Every structure is written in C-alpha cells, then in structure tokens.
UniProtKB/TrEMBL annotation:
Pfam families: DUF4229. Signal peptide: none annotated. It comes from the Bacteria. This is DUF4229 domain-containing protein. Residues 77-99, 122-133 have a biased composition (Basic and acidic residues). It comes from Cellulomonas marina.
Length: 147
C-alpha cells in the first residue's frame, strides 16, 4: 500500500510530482503573510494591513517569483496541449468508430437482403409491404399498410 508522501509514489509515472502552480501559489501566500505581519508590527490595523499586504504581496511576487511563475505557466501550457491532443485523438477515434458502425450497418443490410443464414430475414416483409404499396398507389381511399 502506497502512502501519498512516500518515495515510491514519486517514482510512479502516473504521479504528477511537484505541481509548479501549487508551489507558486504557496510562495505568493508566504509573501502576503510576511507583508501582513510586517505591516501589523509597524502599527497598522489588521484590516488595513490585509489590504496593503495583498498589494505588496502581488508586487513582490511579480518581482521575486519570476522563475516559479514561468514554470507554472509552462506546466499549464503543456497540460493544456496534452489535453487538446487527447481530445483530438478521441475525436478521431470516435469518427473511425462511427465509420465502422456505418459500414457494419450497410453490410448487415446487404446480408439481410440476400437472406444470408444467421441474419434476420426481413426481405419477405419488405416485398409484402412494397406490393401493398404498389397496389394502393394512386388511390385516394387507400389506407397505409399496417405493420
């Protein structure tokens, strides 16, 4: 049984490893918390310090966290490209499946018309319906055949 934080989980190919977006977010939160603490220690009210800390944290993260921000952006871009590739592959696969199903339907219909053993023989039903349709064609009082 694997624990989430074990080294085995890190070697598992399905394990995403370090997620740069999470790292970047945590670093930004640390900057905001540090700015808030510094402003409160400077004598600012906690509510006003919170607003100031968010502004200061955003500025500091822009200046100091370029590497983690670029890593997160690159990770998100790769993830989006991978999802788009999988979606394209799935659409192509489903188009091929639809084509195969249509081909199977045509072959099944042709086999039924020939009366191939093992298929449902509907050719007699169709010929009966066709003869009824021909005999009543053009008559105003004709009622459609009952199936």
């Amino acid at each position: 049984m694997r624990r989430r934080g074990s080294r085995r989980a890190l070697s598992d190919p399905s394990y995403p490893g370090r997620v740069p977006v999470l790292v970047y977010t945590l670093l930004r939160l640390v900057l905001v918390a540090a700015a808030w603490g510094a402003l409160v220690l400077a004598g600012m009210s906690p509510w006003l310090a919170a607003v100031g800390a968010v502004v200061i944290g955003a500025l500091l993260s822009y200046l100091l966290l370029r590497g983690p921000r670029d890593g997160a952006a690159l990770w998100l871009q790769r993830r989006d490209e991978e999802r788009a590739r999988r979606r394209r592959d799935e659409q192509q696969r489903s188009a091929a499946e639809r084509d195969a199903e249509a081909e199977d339907a045509v072959l099944d219909a042709a086999a039924e018309d020939r009366g191939t053993p093992g298929s449902t023989d509907r050719s007699t039903d169709r010929s009966t319906d066709r003869s009824t349709d021909r005999s009543t064609a053009g008559r105003a009082d004709a009622t459609p055949p009952v199936s």
